[in-house]
Structure formats: C-alpha cells, structure tokens
Write a structure and sequence with these properties.
Oligomer: single chain
Distance between the termini: 37 Å
Strand content: 35-45%
CATH topology of the largest domain: Immunoglobulin-like
Structural class: mainly beta
Helix content: under 10%
Number of domains: 3
Radius of gyration: 23 Å
Number of strands: 32
CATH class of the largest domain: Mainly Beta
CATH architecture of the largest domain: Sandwich
Largest sheet: 7 strands, mixed
Length: 574
C-alpha cells in the first residue's frame, strides 16, 4: 500500500518439465469500489479496481485457454480488454465498450473466454469503458508452451513486472464527465506510479552477477515514459509480446499501451540504485500545466548490500532525458527490429488495400450535449482522415455486424485518404492558410468503419498533422499485430513501388501499438484474417474520448472456422 515499504523479490524462473498440452487458466475478477490510500494527500479515496492497483496478474502458457469471470459490483458500466490478444475466433471477448459488446451493467457479470495460441511475452488487461482503466488494469504474461523449449534469449535468473501508471487524487470518472461536458481535457496526473506505488516506495531485490527479465508495461492513461535504472543497462528482447533482435540501451521509451521485455544484468557494485520514470512530452508546442514533470522512483537493492550498522547509502539516481527529448525517443522506437524465427509470421509482400490516414487534433464547435462548454470558443476534437469517431449508443458494432443490421448504427464509408491533401506538418502554413478552416471543423462525430475482405493485406500510412499541434500518438490496433515498415518525420512522401525502397520488408518490428512520431509518420502492414469489428485508436485516453479512432470491419472467410461465430449466451445486452 502507498506509504508502506514493500520488498519485491524478483521471482526466480524455474525450469519446467511438463507435458506440452494446452490447459485452461481461470480467474474471477470482482470489479468493485475500494477505499484506497491517497498518494498526494492524507486519507483515503474511493476507487474502482479489481483487488487493488494493479489488479491480478494472469499467467498462462502459449496455447492455453484463458477464462475470466468478470463480476461488476461497481456503480459504473464496465468492460475488459485483453490488450494485444489476437482473439482468433473469439471476437466477442475483445472488450471495447459498444464496439464488440455492450457494457457489463452494475450488478451483472460476463465470462471472457479466449485462447493465447501463437503468442508469447508480456501483454496486459484493462477496462475499456471510460477512464476506468486508470485503476482497472493488470499484467497478462504468456510463457513459451510447456515442454516446447525456452525463450530465444539467455535464460534469466529471475523476472519482475514493472507496471507504470498515473494516479489522480480524485474520482477519475467524475473528472472524465466534467471534461466531456466542458470540452476541456482532464487535469494532468497528480503522480506517476510503479506497480501502483508512489515515489520511492516500490523495491526490487536482486542478487549480484544475475540477470533479470523486466516486463515493462505502460498502463498510463495519457503519458509516455522514459525508464532507467542507475548504473545498469538493458537488452531489449521483446516488444508488445513479439520477440526482437537484442537491442542494447540504457533507457527504455514506452508509450501508453505498449510493453517492453528487457534483460537487466545485476552487475553493478552491490548497493541500492534508483529505477526511475519520467514523462516524455512529445507535443509541439507544449502547453504549460498540461503535464506532470515529476520523476518517480523505485529502489533496486542488492541482497546482502546493507551496511553492518543497518544504514544504507542513498541510492544513486539515473540521469533522465529531458521531458521533450524526441531524439532519444525516436532512437529507441526506430532501433528495434524483429528476431526472425522459423514458423513466425513474415511480412506479406502483396498489398490489397492501401490507406493514407491523418491522425491528429483539430477544432470544432460545442456539441449540444456539452452543457458546460464555452460556446464562444472552439473546442479541440480528434480525428482520423477528418472523421471524429463516436461509438453507437443502442447496440454494439459487432452485434449490428452479426445481425446484418448496420443501418442507424454505423456506415461503411471511412475514407482511405483525407479530404484535402496539404502540408500536414507545417504549422506556420496551416495557421495562416485556408487548409485549417477546411479541416479543423469536423462537425458532428461519426461512426464510420472501413470494410475489409477476409485475408486482405492492408498497408496504412499514419500521418500526424499540425492543425492544433504536432504530437506522438500511440495508435493501437485490436485483434492483430502489424509490421512497422518505416517511420519518419515530416510528411510521408512515398507512394506505389517507389516507396517500397524505403520499407523494411525483412525484419521489421512487430507491434500492436505504434507511437507515430511527433510531426511525422509511420507505415504499418497487417493481414486481416479474423472476422469481426476491430478497433483502431489512439491509446492516449483524452484523445480517444474526443474521437481519435476508427474501426475495421473484417468480412467472413470461405470456411466455417473463418466466419463470425455467434455471440456467447451470456453476452451483455444494451
């Protein structure tokens, strides 16, 4: 609990000799209101959580079936998303509210069932209804299949989850409602946390001359982080549960929604060292008061390093990057490549659908439901290709798709290109020119999807814009991994075959969440081989809530097992 001193011994990795059959991993999550210690003020606060912050860790082996019974004893509607899980054949278990299901109402329950076949590494779970994921989240660890061999890197002596988050000493649901009604963002977090604990509270115990696997998860609502451990370096071996070629670094950069697996050698002089996180603020211009500039630390303590009198020297603090250090962030984001292994997916070379999608912020006018909005001033909205997304209110998109009844719920006309081509990242030209007037008002939000044929290979250029300001947007795709073929700053200038000369088609990193560079672009490619409705959105929740999202509708395949299955009998109804 905050205020206490918890020693977390990095768990030893045991060798397992077991049969190689899949098992069922079962959990019960009780989403409830808890009294929890404040971080920045005395006393307690009521939060919504599953057993605490973070919630329970799910551990499974590749090929297992995971069953989670979610009981909603909170006063709020709730859904749960299994971030990064493919959901092959189980689209009803994906979790985003009003996209794949109606929410679990207070006093109700829903059982999520899904397989983790074909996946290994660090993922996580979180609420996907309102800003509740600030406190409703936890780790989801998938280990190599029992009896099937080891990790494709040296076996670590121990491991630990390092879950990064944000904390508000206020009711996060109330803050969200106030922001929605007024058209203004929620205030910046009161504190950053490591495994749910505030500054200098969490402790990791290590033994000298040992190697540890750190499973780093960014569960923050709105903030990317730099992560360092004084006197130590890392070897990154996976990102978003996809193995990478070993990447040596002294800093990990991690956007909201992302995970990074990194080996850390405990080879420093025995003693105490700070592990530290600080925010990476990518926005240009950076608005004063829009961020928390604090550094939050945990202690890495070598076993047996205490002085004879029990006194310990103050831990060493790492030199953290400047909070606007885009150079360091870009070096890390672009430095990762895939570890190419036999039997693993490779980049599809033939592309069926090409899209150029702008992602960014713009201006609109107050909507009728925004009763506290300043109607004499513009309101910031977010959009993709100038379409600001809103979820349906009467039935989920997947329900409408299954019933072949999209009318009044969604339309299939999400555009493949923005309505106007312009100098997307030139802020000076946009402010002075007519392009801003043409694009910065999106009118009423829409619910538009992009229909894809089954097994189509899709290439998307994600282009940041400077209509309001340049900013790195962590774009998350549900249901699929994608290959990150290229990233850069400025406007993407490729097209057709000429662009392929700049794309990495050999060993690109595989992700489910890509931090599109500030004032730049990223090229991603994926195969749409799972029927359903798959959300793509910015994982900065203040941006998702104002429209930075769209949905891919993937059609049925030719066989029974490639068609959209019927909903489970206990699927919540609207």
């Amino acid at each position: 609990m905050p205020g206490s001193c918890l020693i977390l011994v990095l768990a030893a990795v045991s060798s397992v000799a077991a049969v190689a059959h899949a098992a069922t991993v079962e959990h019960t999550f009780n989403v409830a209101t808890l009294s929890w210690p404040r971080i920045c003020q005395p006393g307690n606060i009521s939060i919504t959580a599953v057993d605490g912050v973070p919630g329970p860790m799910i551990e499974a082996y590749e090929g297992d079936t995971v069953v989670v019974h979610v009981m909603n004893d909170s006063p709020y509607d709730v859904t749960t998303h299994w971030h990064g899980v493919f959901q092959r054949g189980t689209p009803w278990a994906d979790g985003p509210s009003m996209v794949t299901q109606c929410p679990i109402r207070p006093g109700s329950r829903y059982t999520y069932r899904f397989s983790v076949a074909g996946q290994e590494g660090t993922l996580w779970w979180h609420a996907h209804s309102s800003f509740l994921r600030a406190t409703v989240h936890g780790a989801l660890i998938i280990r190599p299949r029992l009896g099937a061999g080891a990790y494709p890197f040296p076996k670590p002596d121990g491991e630990a989850v390092v879950l990064l988050g944000e904390w508000w000493d206020a009711d996060i649901v109330l803050l969200e409602r106030q922001a929605s009604l007024s058209g203004t963002p929620i205030p910046s977090a009161d504190a950053y946390t490591i495994n749910g604990k505030p500054n200098r509270t969490e402790k990791f115990s290590v033994r000298g001359n040992s190697t540890y696997l750190l499973r780093v998860i960014n569960a923050a609502l709105n903030t990317a982080f730099f992560f360092k451990v004084a006197g130590h370096t890392f070897t990154v071996v996976a990102a978003d549960a996809s193995y990478t070629a070993p990447y040596e670094t002294d800093v990990i950069v991690i956007a909201p929604g992302q995970t990074v697996d990194a080996l850390m050698a405990a080879d420093a002089t025995p003693g105490c060292y700070y592990a530290a996180i600080s925010s990476y603020q990518s926005a240009i211009p950076l608005r004063p008061g829009s961020y928390n500039g604090d550094v939050t630390t945990a202690v890495v303590e070598y076993v047996g390093a205490a002085a004879p009198d029990g006194q310990q020297a103050a831990p060493a603090l790492p030199d953290m990057p400047e909070l606007t250090d885009t150079t360091t962030a870009n070096r890390f984001y672009t430095g990762l490549t895939a570890l190419v292994l036999p039997g693993r997916p490779t980049v599809p070379l033939a592309v069926d659908t090409r899209m150029f999608v702008t992602v960014g912020l713009g201006f609109s006018s107050c909507q009728p439901e925004q009763t506290s909005c300043n109607r004499s001033a513009p309101v910031v909205v977010a959009s993709m290709n100038n379409e600001s997304f809103t979820r349906p209110t009467t039935t989920s998109l997947l329900d409408a798709r299954y019933g072949n009844a999209p009318d009044g719920v969604y339309t299939r006309d999400f555009p493949d290109r923005p309505p106007v081509a312009f100098d997307y990242t030139n802020a000076t030209e946009l402010v002075a020119g007519s392009v801003a007037a043409a694009l910065s008002s999106t009118g009423r939000p829409t619910t538009k999807v992009r229909a894809l044929g089954y097994n189509a290979t899709v290439e998307v250029v994600l282009q940041n814009t400077a209509l309001v300001g340049r900013e790195s947007h962590p774009m998350h795709l549900h249901g699929f991994n994608f290959f990150v073929l290229a990233q850069g700053f400025g406007n993407y200038g490729g097209g057709g075959d000429a662009a392929s000369e700049r794309l990495n088609l050999v060993n690109p990193q595989e992700r489910n969440t890509i931090a599109v560079p500030t004032g730049g672009w990223a090229v991603i490619r994926f195969v749409a081989d799972d029927p359903g409705m798959w959300f793509m959105h910015c994982h900065i929740d203040t941006h998702l809530s104002i429209g930075l999202a769209m949905v891919f509708e993937v059609g049925d395949g030719p066989t029974p097992d490639t068609k959209l299955p019927p909903p489970p009998p206990d699927l919540p109804r609207c």
